[in-house]
Amino acid sequence: MKKLLKTCLLMTSAIAMTAGCTALPASTDKAQETKTEKPQATKAPDNELFIYTVWPAFYVKEEIFQKQIGEPLKKKFPNITIKHVHWDNPGRQYKDLIAAGTIPDIIIDNARGNLQKEIMKNDLQYDMTELIKKFNFDTSKLNQAAFAQMKNVTPEGKIYGLPFQLSDFVLFYNKDIFDKFGVDYPKDGMTYDEVYELAKKLTRVEGENTYKGYQQHPGLYMNYNQLSLSPLSLTEDKAELNTEGWKRLVDNLRRFYEIPANQFTTVDDFPKGKMAMSVHVSEKIIQWYEQNKNLNFDIVSMPSFPDLPNTKAQPNMYAAYITKQSTKKDLAFQVIDYLLSEEMQVELSKEGIIGPLESKKVQEAFGKNLPQMQGKHTQGIFASKNAMPPAARANGLTYVDVPVHNVFAPLIFGESKDSATALRMIEEQTTKGIQTAKAAK
Predict the structure, then answer these.
(1) Domains and CATH numbers, the chain
(2) What is the pTM of this model?
(3) pLDDT digits (tens, 9 = 90+) for 147-156
């Protein structure tokens, strides 16, 4: 999955570059086999800051990292040296850095799963609260749903990272299909009910051509759900999916795929020209344009629930973390502070990167450097707000990944389970996984 998503995101980058990232002094196979000699890390110079990127995936291209991060930091902080390593398999994973004794000062990674799975699992987490106070960092300037996601990791509200980049969902639509069937284009702020009516009008079979009215990735829809539902109990070591809220969520999307001829295939079929609407991340503007330059499409805001107007998915984002082991925490925080400044966020926005800064100036700069985005309604990305993430779970509870994507495939799509049964089956499977994980500790 990581490899697939990495390929996908690389295609979205506006910069066509070829060189790889810098080498990591990873441990040798012999050292791993014997486990008798721990590699001795060479102490880094006091003016060197080590940044490790896992997500976003396009920083595997060193040129992209240098253009977007390295060079601006060198200009702002001429007396420091930035060392950069990007995740790779094999040789540049968390375990490899740790084995080699080369702990980064800053980690940039996916905020949804990898904080628990990698950073906290390897005891790299560091509460940045005191640094935020020390350097008078104004957290109110940030996307509040994104910031809440960082605070909701622990009941005490410890801040292990700050939002860095977002990958927001929007509604893509094919203008030619709407024109062909005489249907008005979608607009910002539409509800799922309104989009459902459009989908019924636009799902057609004409000879050998099947026009699908609407497609949305079920797994992403569930993981970043707009109802702020947690798949894990906040107070007990169990999953919590067999609820009215989750059933409402599933039924809402299910009805789209029960429209005759609108069975789920893949949202990535949109560039083929036979899909009227598709919900996906904004980076697809570039990728789908490159796949089909004749595609006549535009975007509007993601549809919302009627009782949660103008509310899109929870933040799908990458965050910047300072490691517990870093001896340069003050410097690392000043670097993150600058990366989140309006000056830097405007430049990143021009490259089609959604930042966490709630700034009109930043939003208006979005995509200005990218010819693929010219003429597109890119402000639709900012027309709605992110749903708030669930509250923090109680201390001491076990974290596991919940395969919510399996509710639809295979259980609903493949086995025709009703929504409540599919949810109950994944709930039971996850709860067993939690008990297994606890027993293995």
Answers:
(1) 2-167+316-371 (3.40.190.10), 169-314+390-440 (3.40.190.10)
(2) 0.87
(3) 999 999 889 9
